[in-house]
Amino acid sequence: MKTMLVLNLMPELEEDMVDFLLANPHVGGFTSYRTRGHGEHANMSLAEQVSGRRRRLQFEVILEEAAISELVGGLAEGVGKDILYWQQAISNLGKV
Q1: Long-range contacts of 29-35 (CB under 8 A, 24+ apart)
Q2: What is the pLDDT along the chain (96 residues), one digit of tens a residue?
Q3: For the chain, which residues make up each domain, given as ranges?
Q4: How far is Cα 6 from Cα 56, in angstroms, rounded to an integer?
Q5: Any idea what the Cα angle at residue 61 is, between residues 17 and 87, rounded to 5°?
Q6: What are phi and psi of 44, to 5 degrees?
Q7: Which end of the chain has the lower number of beta carbons within 10 A, N or C?
Q8: Cβ contact 27:63 at 8 Å
Q9: How far is residue 63's CA from residue 34's CA, in Å, rounded to a whole number?
């Protein structure tokens, strides 16, 4: 079953994440974009707390559900820490 894995991380890890995903045989491609994180002030710098947000990057990868645990298991060593992730079931996938 195809599943979308969403990875949310600090911008400093961008190049390592790109390299990690490109090297993974289960990943055929992915999408990335800049986003903002809100909440959990304990993890924010003083400037981020004042503005109420921090810069983050988000990656979306569609792959087989069975490959997710292997990919997530290698994130800390292959990319770094402070990576938030979640997965969403894909009910339909196609290209026109």
Answers
A1: 30/59, 30/60, 30/61, 30/62, 31/59, 31/60, 32/57, 32/58, 32/59, 32/60, 33/57, 33/58, 34/58, 35/8
A2: 899 999 999 999 999 999 999 999 999 999 999 997 776 666 666 666 666 667 889 999 999 999 999 999 999 999 998 899 999 999 988 889
A3: 2-89
A4: 13
A5: 110
A6: -105, 150
A7: C
A8: yes
A9: 21
Helix or strand (DSSP H, E) at 62: strand 54-64
Residues present in the chain in total: 96
Q: What are phi and psi of 14, to 5 degrees?
A: -55, -55
- The answer to whether domain 2-89 has CATH 3.30.830.10 is no
